[in-house]
Design a protein that fits this description.
The chain is an all-alpha fold. It has 20 helices and no strands. The longest helix is centred in the first third of the chain and has 27 residues. The N and C termini lie far apart (67 Å). The N terminus is likely disordered.
């Protein structure tokens, strides 16, 4: 009788335990995706830093490797040096080969603030901020997708976001994680009609990077959808969308006062050969036939693989934007399309694969297609292979994006 009684009690308790787990699925699933993907990224980066020959160039970028492999990889590679130098010394425009003003201020401000409050080195602060923002972005993304679709689609969307080939930048001192958190959070709050919070997050997005302005159509079309649904016009959504440019305008005001040029972040980008240029002219150069012909050039390794990789990412995300617009997901579609076209108009294909990573509505499309098991497995295998390759190269100091 006792054995029967215990078995019955266990059987009755089990649904309650499962229901409690399911009730927290919105937090557990994205946290698990974050933990698994970051563990993989950190492990591959650690091995890559020790096994791949170091290609780190002379410290043009204010790099200062700490005595820790992972902090070195994620806090002292390429553009991370600019954010560190801004947090420690402020902005520089003249007298240096590569000015720091093109890098927007939210990340270095947070790094300086966390360092001041905790006494931590700004490199450690930057890595912690990036990863914490990525975790919060994953949770917010899950809630955003689950509200519209279902938990399975939400779980896959977060997973694809976490293992995208350039998702390694979400753990480094780059602004991608903060941008994801700000834009996803703004749309989530807008859909839940918390427009003031949405507006504040939109300001954070435009304080993170210039392309953060693409959050404006995202909020405007959500406001328009709600107005049509309610049959009444409310001004809160317009106010939130109107708040968004304040981040960029505030940074421009600072640049005007400090350097006499509110648009210094644009003009200084010329140091990287980033100048406004038609994407078609740039793509025409990419498709210009080599003198010896395409096949001999490919076999001889005489084509610019990096540019072709970036073009592939651009083409894929333009396709995603087109599908979203065809489905009349106007805000999401414009967010992705502008997120492709604005960086593409900078005169360079360089880094496009990193810029594409943060265009989160695309992962909802992929997650919906991932209902087919073969699609899910193919995407997972392709993304993990790309993430491993790029992480190894990045850890070794090679250019990735």
């Amino acid at each position: 009788m006792q054995l029967t009684h215990r078995s019955s009690g266990d059987t009755m308790a089990r649904p309650g335990w499962r229901s409690r787990v399911l009730a927290w699925r919105w937090a557990l699933t994205p946290t698990a995706a974050f933990a698994i993907s970051r563990l993989a990224v950190f492990l591959v980066a650690y091995l890559g830093a020790h096994l791949v020959p170091d290609n780190t160039a002379p410290p043009v970028y204010h790099l200062r490797p700490p005595e820790n492999t992972l902090l070195d990889v994620f806090g002292s590679r390429w553009d991370t040096g600019f954010y560190v130098s801004i947090a420690e010394e402020g902005y520089v425009l003249e007298g240096v080969p590569l000015p720091s003003v093109p890098f927007f201020p939210l990340l270095p401000l947070l790094m300086r603030g966390v360092g001041w409050l905790t006494g931590a080195d700004v490199v450690l602060a930057g890595v912690v901020i990036a990863n914490l923002a990525l975790l919060l972005a994953a949770v917010a993304f899950y809630r955003l997708v689950a509200d519209r679709w279902d938990d399975d689609v939400a779980g896959r969307a977060v997973w694809y976001l976490m293992i995208f080939p350039t998702a390694l930048y979400g753990s480094a001192i780059y602004s991608e994680s903060l941008f994801l958190l700000a834009t996803i959070g703004a749309l989530l709050m807008a859909r839940r009609r918390r427009w003031i919070v949405a507006g504040l997050l939109a300001i954070a997005a435009t304080l993170t990077r210039f392309v953060g302005l693409i959050v404006i159509p995202l909020l405007l079309f959500e406001w328009w959808r709600q107005c049509r649904q309610d049959g009444a016009w409310r001004w809160s959504g317009l106010v939130a969308a109107g708040m968004a440019p304040l981040g960029t305008l505030g940074y421009m005001a600072y640049l005007g006062r400090a350097f006499g040029d509110p648009l210094a972040f644009l003009s200084a980008s010329a140091a990287w050969d980033r100048v406004a240029r038609s994407p078609w002219a740039m793509l025409a150069e990419l498709f210009e036939r080599p003198a010896a012909g395409w096949l001999p050039a490919v076999l001889a390794g005489q084509i610019h693989i990096d540019n072709w990789l970036d073009f592939g990412f651009v083409a894929a995300f333009l396709l995603f934007a087109g599908i979203l617009l065809y489905e009349q997901e106007w805000g999401d579609g414009l967010f992705v399309m502008l997120g492709v076209l604005i960086p593409l108009s900078s005169g360079l294909l360089m880094s496009q694969r990193r810029y594409m990573w943060v265009l989160f509505p695309a992962y909802v499309l992929l997650a919906r297609a991932g209902r087919h098991r073969w699609v899910d497995r193919a995407l997972t295998a392709l993304f993990l292979a790309g993430l491993a390759l790029f992480t190894i190269l990045y850890a070794g100091g090679y250019w990735v994006a």
